[in-house]
Amino acid sequence: MTPRMVLEGIYTPLITPFHADGSFDLDALAELIERLIDAGVHGLISGGSTGENYAETVEERLELARFITERTNGRLPVIVGTGAMRTPDSIALAEGARDMGADAILLGTPPYSVPTEQENALNALAIDRACGLPIILYNYPGRMSVEMGTTFLDRVGRSKNVIGIKESSGDINRVHLLARDYPHIQMSCGMDDQALEFFAWGARSWICAGSNLLPEEHIALYQACAVEGNFDKGRRIMSAMLPLMRVLEQGGKFIQCVKHGVEVTGLRAGPMRPPLKGLNKDEKRALEQVIRTLKTTVKAITEGN
Predict the structure, then answer these.
(1) What range does the record give for the signal peptide (predicted)?
(2) What share of the chain has pLDDT > 90, as a percent?
(3) The whole model's pTM is what?
(4) What is the DSSP string of 12-65?
């Protein structure tokens, strides 16, 4: 059975540009949206952790999602993140996504409460009933302390609205499990340094924060692996991208690196909202060198085939 929404390509979880006073820089966000559409990404995500959702109110998150949906104007699918500690907040975000005409929601485990799989499933199904949109699950036990295990997947996977899962556990055995036992739930790469493995196991999409700053390079890996089936080329591109992924994932300053990377491209990203702080000069310099080398190497691979 064909799912209600096919996950294909590169989906960018958008950063939130801020002014110095912490207010939204919507002009900068509009410029980023246009840049990503022009680059050829396949979808946009509002209200993810990359967008600093933890530092925003429900009302602010809805304001951002509405702006992104209206600015995109049907040119790309827009997926709205609904992750929140309180179920009523997640429901409010999901209902808002439906009312503003978003294409789907991204649904994670409520943080901090550490629900059982059964409790987590009931929470997800309550949000499902409230909005009726296609749902992409978000498995990120490193942040939520809870895995969307087989008990959870067996229960929520019965809903026709559950069409995909962003898998960010880092456990390669989860990739095997999803590919073999849950083929009706489209698997999307949510662990950047395993993108090649995800594509080898049949994933057709990659939800990657790094595409805020390097959309063409992320598209190149998807194109080589998922479209062309050229994994030799894919390995070379992946090898060139791994230094960036090490900087993003292992430095403890993931969002800071993504936002500075956007600034390097000539767009505004602005400061972080507390409690996070920006990169220092040495960190910025190291990231800039990694970006320069990556762009040069991937360009040589794609142009030389």
Answers:
(1) none
(2) 96
(3) 0.97
(4) EE----B-TTS-B-HHHHHHHHHHHHHHT-SEEEESSGGGTGGGS-HHHHHHHH
How far apart CA 82 and CA 28 sit, in angstroms, is 23
Q: How far apart are CA 82 and CA 239, in angstroms?
A: 33
Residue 54 falls in the annotated catalytic set: no
Structure tokens at 247: 């900087």
* pLDDT score, position 249: 76
- Nearest-CA neighbor of 70 among 107, 97, 36? 97
Give pLDDT, residue 61.
98
Q: Which of 11, 138, 140, 222 is catalytic?
A: 138
Tokens of 162: 């559950």
Q: Within 13 Å of residue 181, how many CA atoms lie on the same side as its CB?
A: 12
Q: Is 204 helix (H, G, I), strand (E, B) or coil?
A: coil
Q: How confident is the model at residue 2 (pLDDT cuts 50, 70, 90)?
A: low
| Token digits of residue 296 | 């040069």
> What pLDDT, on a 0 to 100 scale, did the predictor assign at position 252?
80
Q: What is the pLDDT of residue 3?
A: 67
pLDDT score of 305? 59
Query: What type of residue sits at position 227?
Result: V
Q: Check: CB of residue 189 under 8 Å from CB of residue 225.
A: no
Record the tokens describing residue 232, joined without a space. Answer: 């030799």
pLDDT in tens, 188-247: 999 999 999 999 999 999 999 999 999 999 999 999 999 999 999 999 999 999 999 999
Nearest CA-CA partner of 156 in 116, 123, 205, 189: 123
- Choice among 11, 140, 166, 259 that is catalytic: 166
User: Any alpha helices (H) in the chain, and if so which ranges?
Assistant: 26-39, 58-72, 87-100, 117-131, 141-144, 150-156, 172-181, 195-200, 215-222, 231-250, 254-264, 281-304
